[in-house]
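quick one, three chains, predict together pls
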Amino acid sequence: MITGYANNSRGVGVRSLQLILPSVVCSTHLSKKVAEEVGAITFSHQHGCAIIGPDVAGVNDFFVALAGHPNIHSTLVLGLGCETLQGNELTESIAVKFPETKYVVIQESAGMTGALELSVEAARQLRVDAPHAPLDHLVIGVEGNPEAGLLDGFADLVAKAGHTLVLSNDFKEPSRNFAKLIRERTHVIASFPDANQPPTGLPLIPVVTIANTQSLLHQALVDDFDCRSGTSAEHLFERLLAVANGEASKSEAKKIGEIVVPRMVRSV
Amino acid sequence: MARVNSLIVLDARDNIAIALQELPVGMRIEQSDIASALEVQTVIPRGHKIALVDIAKGEAIIKYGERMGHAFAPILRGSHVHTHNVIGDRVSTEPTA
Amino acid sequence: MSGSEPSLLTGYPRKNGRWGFRNYILILPLHNVLNQLAEEVRLNHPAQSVITSVAHDWSGEIDSDWDRIHRVFSGFAVNPNVGATIVIGVGSAAEEEIVEAARAKREMPIAYLTLRDSGGFDNLRQRLMESVSEVFPLVASIKRESAPWSAIVLGLECGGSDAYSGITANPALGVASDKFVELGGTSILAETMEILGAEHLLAARAKTPEVGQAIIDVVARYERSITYEGIDIRGAQPSRGNIEGGLTTLEEKSLGAAKKAGNAPFTGVLDYAYLPTEPGLYFMDTPGHDIEQLTGFAAADVNITVFTTGRGTPTGSAVIPTIKAATNTEMATALPDLIDLNAGTIADGTETLAEVGARIFNEIIEVANGKLTAAEKGGHREFNLSRLYGSTQ
């Protein structure tokens, strides 16, 4: 049994976080300031303007997935005003599904000082103490390529417990594989980084990292991983449940990891 | 006291100027960078272009001292210069319906 | 003005002959997993006021964009506004290549610390703190000196444009740019999409037929790449909003954007993040994306930028002081902490182009000499790794 949080329209999550979502690179700096001030999460990104073709809908949909993730209780969208991805339209597409969403725009807020004040106020209005709630059905992401034996055993345990497993291993870099796991609303992730990649995490989903003991890099960084290859499926499963129940994973405690927004084509 | 002009002439070679305010029909404009008093023939919205001289069909429109397109209809001095009488040289930019 | 006019500039001399108008210690993470660590050290080190750092989403992948990524990171690391750079990485051959390229570009203190060698995040943080302390006295010992006019490498940028951009701030910036070019400085126009439709006019200002052809080619190449994506830019330009605002043709719109480069002849055309080799006016092939452009400038030794804006934008570079010039008085009044200078007075009829041009010229000198811009006061350090291909292929 997992005890999570009832994050209203976003469902039951294993964390209850507030997201400050910059709709464009120009509002990421303000987002950081607001997130620090109110204790929310945010991320650095370079998208939202001068995007064309499939990226317009692609970036928008990715942001909706982020803003509506079950580990999030509310989202404040911060826009500049003249960007391609219009903050008000993005906010509408989030709010139609997830009403605990607000929007502040710099160009209509008398500048940065004004926008900061309005944003902090809006974020505080959105803030809730989400009540605990039972989470019977956990969605677990697996990033990278665990050894076949471990994956089979682990998949069995997940299935027996009535949880769901989502795999993502298109790329060598964990931060690029995470995009799919965010869209699939995974509550927790077990990450098996490539031998040349360091352990990493995400601000909104706790990530448990497993070192590949064949990798010289992972050997050097072993204290920054939660587990090592050779660990049993049972141990890994227990560790993920403990993290789902509130224990901090290594990457979570160290606050490492960036959200990478997938892009299809160049900027114009 | 600040001087306030109604038009801005961007380059001495230009045959158009930019309205700094909406210009009503009949308004007489005299400023140092215009050869002789200009009478507004059609309403010119703020930020839009007004002809400083008569411009014949096919003649170039000069802004910033450069060619920005040509007239596809004759334009009288003091009239609005825009998509209804001007087109780009390289690319058609006729507004879609 | 004449070429013999005494320079009013001061700056930090660099061993490659460039001049800095700032003297930063740059912390440059080469993997997105280190973004947070770079920022923590910047905020917690006693030398905070001279430290700058960036964040980005690269995670060390070598793909079709590798040349561009390599060039941007190695160029950014040695921007003349930086006195010393500490590169932090995971520990990989790709990172080593970037560091080596940076060292070959400029003789300066460049340290390279890795997670692998440090044995983890906590040790790397500690080593980074120590490394900053170690290099600080060295950087602090470099003093401002009188600099020649040729020290100026001016970036010309516009973003959030409106109907007044082409008649106020852009041509006024052009006046200032022309003065610096005449005095022996360097100035760079960019944003390929923003000259589409006016490239033949710019090409006519080229110093040689080859440079003129290069301007034509760069636009044609850009158009082909966009068309390849199945997007018709021309059908949408000028936009409905542009036409309502009074813009009639594509040439007119592009001419307005190109006005930032005044009337000087073009000395050369640069690919994204490539360095100008001699003084003069250049065109650089960049996206219109404000921060991709600014980052490309930074990697090409640009040491000061003027950014004209109609709608108002707060952004700045981690290494280049970025002066915001408003195109209209209404916005300059509404968003005062974003704007350094109002060029809207031209449209108000209270100042001439020449007067505002002189004001921008003087502001550039003052900022070069140490005056902080609105973006610097706000702590803006935007950075963007520009890609020609998507990040998902």
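Chain A touches chain C through 53 residues (CB under 8 Å).
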